[in-house]
Here is the input.
Amino acid sequence: MTETERPLRADARRNRARVLEVAQQVFETEGLAVPVDEVAKRAGVGIGTVYRHFPTKEALLEAILISRVEGLVADAQALADAPEPGPAFFGFVVRMVRNVVGNKALGEALASSGRDPVEVLGSAHTELRAAQDHLLARAQEAGAVRADVTGADLKAIIVGIIAAERHIDGEPGRLGSIMIESLRA
Here is the structure.
């Protein structure tokens, strides 16, 4: 077994998680121009610790994006057998839209560096689509969502919400709410 295949020690796992958490907060509130050494300082670790886990800033951005999508997957999977599929589906869609808004800058940064965010996400993207499609199917079976909505439609609607919200001068979330309501049966 090589060193890279060994599981991380408990303190190394905590440090990695702390760096991801702090980096996500800092990049969301202050932008992606914040230097990695500032992230390390705020996380209470040395710069070497950050670079041991994330050799480049792009690697850190990728890890944040993957972590956020994995969180959405876990959320969707936890709702897979919810007793009320309609509210479970709509609540998940609202949370996913909020998450995608936060991911937008990360995705754009990766794309500008030549990386395809879907490629970076790999299996997490596939798992998210499967879990989202399962919630959609259950909500449709329960009569809460229009029967003609497909998984591809839902993805396009979410992308549309994000794009629309960035180009209007109104109450944040208002247009997204209107679009999400259009999914109801």
Q: What stands out?
A: The domain at 1-55 is CATH 1.10.10 (Arc Repressor Mutant, subunit A). The two ends are 54 Å apart (CA to CA).
